[in-house]
């Protein structure tokens, strides 16, 4: 999209050479060689580039477009122990018609729930074109036997999930057991079958270094992720401009190396329209305009939608209507 386009270019790493999948994934040692052979991340450069792109101003007509685009990219999420069918139905109604006073307002991309509430969401969203996303694999910690994680995934898919958001085994990853992480993603991918897209949550806040985030991104993509996702939203550090920029570089480089396009989903702590628009600038400037659609970029968020709606109403009327005029997230 040219209106979010750059006026100045900033250097970012060149695409990585195509990996030979069979060689790379043959063993822990081969995966380690490949993942540790990826270029090291210049943390200072990454953070300054993310900060610099965050200062880009977006003019009024582009802003209207970008606010609607951001709404259409939301995975409207509720992941609480206290979730009820009633809460999920209310969220689905909101996802269908985020602003009942303005039917031009786009619907969200998906409603994201725990697997036991997939059937409720499925029924409430019938005919809407909005996807049902389910977290699975013992979300958020991912601490369970693989059989339990696969059963969780299979139940979500059987209940009608269009998308499965799995967590990687961070313990195995940090211990260098890359093959185990790779094989688990493959197994979950298989449990998703043809029906469900797979989003792989790296849980960046637990990966300790930017180098690890780059390695985990590649590992997930090699194993068949349709999307890579920053976070569960349940730990101290979730989606940040810098860790999302790094993952956008990874999907860009992966497509250059393999021809396969993978989506990106920052999640956790994204609450304001201002922040969402900064993320869209990062997408355009890093992965490129091919990613500026809900097919390739999502926001995992429980309470971003209301601020986007308030900003949208302000653009239309010239004033804020205030939080009382949008339904509670
Ligand atoms: O995947 C989505 C996140 O759990 C939502 O996090 P949030 O409540 O900080 O928006």
Automatic annotation (TrEMBL):
It catalyses: 2-deoxy-D-ribose 5-phosphate = D-glyceraldehyde 3-phosphate + acetaldehyde. Pathway: Carbohydrate degradation; 2-deoxy-D-ribose 1-phosphate degradation; D-glyceraldehyde 3-phosphate and acetaldehyde from 2-deoxy-alpha-D-ribose 1-phosphate: step 2/2. Its EC number is 4.1.2.4. PANTHER family: DEOXYRIBOSE-PHOSPHATE ALDOLASE (PTHR10889). This is Deoxyribose-phosphate aldolase. The gene is deoC. Keywords: Lyase, Schiff base. It comes from Streptomyces chisholmiae. Belongs to the DeoC/FbaB aldolase family. DeoC type 2 subfamily. The keyword Disulfide bond does not apply. It comes from the Bacteria. CDD domains: DeoC. It is an enzyme of class 4 (lyase). GO terms for molecular function: deoxyribose-phosphate aldolase activity. SUPFAM superfamilies: Aldolase.
